[in-house]
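User: Here's a protein and a ligand (calcium ion). What would the complex look like?
Assistant: Let me lay out the input and then the predicted complex.
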Amino acid sequence: MSHRKQTGQPRTSIRQIVILAAVAAGGFVAAFAVTKYSGQSSSRSEVPDPVAADRTSVAPGKRQFGPTQLNDAGPAGDALPGMVWIPGGEFTMGTNSELGWPDEKPAHRVQVDGFWIDSTEVTNARFREFVEGTGYVTTAEKPPDLDEIMSQVEPGTAPPTKEQLVPGSLVFTPPGVNVGLRDFSQWWKWTPGANWKHPEGPGSDLAGRDDHPVVQVSWDDAAAFARWAGQRLPTEAEWEFAARGGLSDKPYVWGDAPPTDKAPRANIWQGSFPNENTAADGFARTAPVKSFAANGFGLYDMAGNVWEWCSDWYDRELYGRRVDEIVVNPPGPSRSIDPSRPFTPQRVQRGGSFLCNDSYCSRYRPSARHGSSPDTGMSHVGFRCAKSGGQPVVH
Ligand SMILES: [Ca+2]
């Protein structure tokens, strides 16, 4: 099911934006990426309430922070290897803290049923089992769709060349000069030949990285893996409930203390983004899973290392509509809404990555949210899977 069919909106992915930025730099399709990325807001009057289906009115007046209340529910169904039972319960989702970005506010009460979740991000070794067992071809191993790209450009614009429309993905590449922090295409390089087996391009491989999280996987790839594994992607609410580890009103998955060079607590970025990475935490890119302490539920890397895909569409203004109600098992909105990227349908990512630091992103906090187009793999994006407790797996 394509997003275009759901919304009637044209579709532009982050993958395409960076391809086109690269093409424009070579003299093709000039200015398209800039005009679309900075583009106009969609008309809100034409947009139906996207959360009408996932709101359940239980009680008023619950917007303030309250303690996490864990259900008594014990593990339901059989555990799959590497999964941890999360009992579910009621918690405060989002934040009212000054650390939070607007899409994390306001804090509101949410209930989730018990569920299973992987204790670690899906590793390269595990993803290899999937590919070798099914012959699955990831998004990054297929050429970009010329028709889809050209449907977004001004008539008469010269198309990319065949040499530019080859399989590839986006690789974080420090620009080496001061480029500011506003234009992500300055440090995301469209790299032919980059894919999960070659995360930084054809010259890289997975030697010694079997226990690192798989990267360069699109949302579609992650969902396909989950179906194969008898699992599913977690909802955004499940992910945050799990990330908080039973804590309440804490800015980090481990509690209150900000990470420091001496006590990094997670694989994030130290130094001045995007050119100086001191790797004081020991890792300039991905780290083996379980390199840092687990949270209160026994889950690793819920902060940093790689962003993790969730099942939900991303709606930047979702929480503002969850007023004075307890939201029960929210599956997310029926479509994505982000006025800053009106042409880019996006799925939720959570947890931040090895590229996060306080000067640029700071989204390694449990309430932090982020959206990315579902066909876009990047060198700092992976996933972990969930499974409903005692219920058939729902896809
Ligand atoms: Ca690091």
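Summary: Residues 267-269, 279, 281, 283, 354 surround calcium ion (CB under 6 Å).
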